[in-house]
Each structure stands twice: as structure tokens, then as C-alpha cells.
Amino acid sequence: MTPLITLYFVAGFALMHVVITMLVGAARVPNQIHFYDEGDLNLRRNQRAHANFCETVPMALITMAAAETSGTPASWIITGGLVIVAGRLLHYYIIRVRGWGNARAVSMLMTLMPIVGFAGLTLWNLSA
Q: Is it the case that residue 122 has pLDDT exceeding 90?
């Protein structure tokens, strides 16, 4: 079974990844910073937003695909995927604008809870 719903999310997250990566590059240009962040707060926030995206999205997509291919209903896959998208967008915004805050914690929960849910559903489906 091909995880068709997950593939739409893979494509969307891939496009988001390209944009976020380009924004890190664009943040390097004004001060000609080629490596690290050299203390530039704007660049550091761009890098952290990009890094967190890279740290969480792959596992979210893997668990989503596992849940989908193991038989989780499409509506659950779509709902979980949309929660992750909202969480990643909120997290990116908060890191870029504030750097911290309660919304950042909420955004992480919006990413981690679906990962746990997809993993649990996969195990449930496999045991049935």
C-alpha cells in the first residue's frame, strides 16, 4: 500500500524546507556571514527555526506513513498532518519573531503529539 496522503504532506514539507533554507541563506547576505552565526540574532533565529524543522519533520512524516500504510483511517492521517503543519508554521513564526514563549511550547506539542499518535496507531494496527 502506498501512503498517498502522506506523500502530499511530504511534497508540502519539502517546499517549506526549501523556503526556510533559502531564508537562512538570505539572512547571511547582509553581513556576509559564511559560517555559524557570528552573533547575528536574526541569523541565529533563522538557523534554529530551520534546524528544528529538520529535527522534527522527518520523524513526523515517517510515523505518518507508518500509520497510513498500517491502516489508520484517512481522516486521522489528514487531521494529524494538518496539526503538524500548523505546529511547524507557528513554531517558525515564534522563533523568528520572539525566540521563545508559551506559543513555542504549544507548537512543539502540535508536532510531537501527532508523532506519538501516529506511532501508537501503527502499533495498534499491527497488533490487530
A: yes
